[in-house]
């Protein structure tokens, strides 16, 4: 616990967060609270503002309007304290193909100030957790897309963060590799009680793995709850017998906006970005 936090202090609290790129209002008054120990899914189409919000939470972007706190620390005033508490797996490639898996994780251990004496053991442990111990001394450039994603997870985990933030961790992976990545995330969470904030386009994954989800559209959360609450809520509003899917819920919330310039759930843009990333 930090000096500013109590057992009820949320892992992440955004209040009225706004961020613009020129005339584009990427995040538009975002209110969000993620409880400690939750797996929270931030969902939405391309351009909804998910990555921008995540970058504000991770302190990579400033917070020009509103407030963001991580375990009670103001990201504007206490940037280093926030950074020490979190592990971040960005959409862009963060592993170096010219280094071995172990060397990649060692690099992160040094950057995140893992004490020198503990470093080798912590690196080995992180690689073991993501099931890469046997491949640890191979060049990352020889890894499959799923292995690269798991290596990036090990990089984020080596500093033993209290909050793990993953931006589209499974996009572009085949279904077996997607399951593998989620297995590792769930295993770590079960072992450590760590809070997980994840963005994804895959509604089925959010439904299966997230305790709560926030459906984001045009810079704001438009619906919030457990996947089952949101699906039951729509069934009641529609008087439907069968339970709708989360994707149905999102279409109901976002309406025709999904078909405009913001893109659709499976917009090719992100897939292409990831194909480049792991290629
Ligand atoms: N560096 C930038 N410069 C200008 N506009 C940007 C920049 N980054 C994002 N935007 C714009 O801000 C809006 C929100 O983008 P953001 O990447 O946060 O959305 P997203 O929900 O993460 O989408 P995706 O799923 O494609 O990653 C979009 O309209 C996008 O075009």
From TrEMBL:
The keyword Membrane does not apply. Coiled coil: none annotated. Keywords: ATP-binding, Nucleotide-binding. PROSITE patterns: ABC_TRANSPORTER_2. One of its GO terms (molecular function) is ATP binding. It comes from the Bacteria. Pfam families: ABC_tran. Residues 12-243 form the ABC transporter domain. The keyword Transit peptide does not apply. This is ABC transporter ATP-binding protein. It comes from Streptomyces fuscichromogenes.
């Amino acid at each position: 616990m930090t000096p500013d936090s109590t057992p009820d202090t949320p892992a992440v609290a955004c209040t009225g967060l706004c961020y613009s790129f020129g005339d584009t209002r990427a995040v538009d008054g975002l209110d969000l609270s993620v409880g400690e120990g939750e797996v929270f899914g931030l969902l939405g189409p391309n351009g909804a503002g998910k990555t921008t919000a995540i970058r504000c939470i991770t302190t990579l972007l400033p917070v020009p309007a509103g407030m963001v706190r991580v375990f009670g620390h103001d990201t504007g005033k206490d940037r280093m304290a926030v950074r020490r508490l979190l592990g971040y797996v960005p959409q862009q490639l963060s592993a170096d193909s010219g280094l071995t898996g172990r060397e990649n994780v060692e690099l992160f251990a040094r950057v995140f100030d893992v004490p020198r004496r503990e470093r080798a053991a912590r690196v080995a442990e992180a690689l073991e957790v993501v099931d890469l111990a046997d491949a640890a001394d191979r060049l990352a450039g020889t890894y499959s897309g799923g292995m690269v994603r798991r290596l990036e997870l090990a990089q984020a985990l080596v500093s033993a963060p209290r909050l793990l933030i993953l931006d589209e961790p499974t996009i572009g992976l085949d279904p077996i590799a997607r399951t593998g990545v989620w297995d590792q995330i769930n295993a770590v969470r079960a072992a450590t009680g760590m809070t997980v904030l994840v963005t994804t386009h895959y509604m089925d994954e959010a439904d299966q793995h997230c305790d709560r989800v926030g459906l984001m559209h045009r810079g704001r959360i438009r619906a919030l709850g457990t996947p089952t609450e949101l699906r039951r809520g729509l069934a009641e509003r529609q008087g439907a017998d069968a339970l709708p899917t989360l994707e149905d819920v999102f279409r109901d919330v976002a309406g025709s906006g999904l078909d405009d310039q913001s893109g659709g759930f499976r917009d090719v843009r992100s897939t292409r970005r990831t194909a480049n990333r792991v290629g």
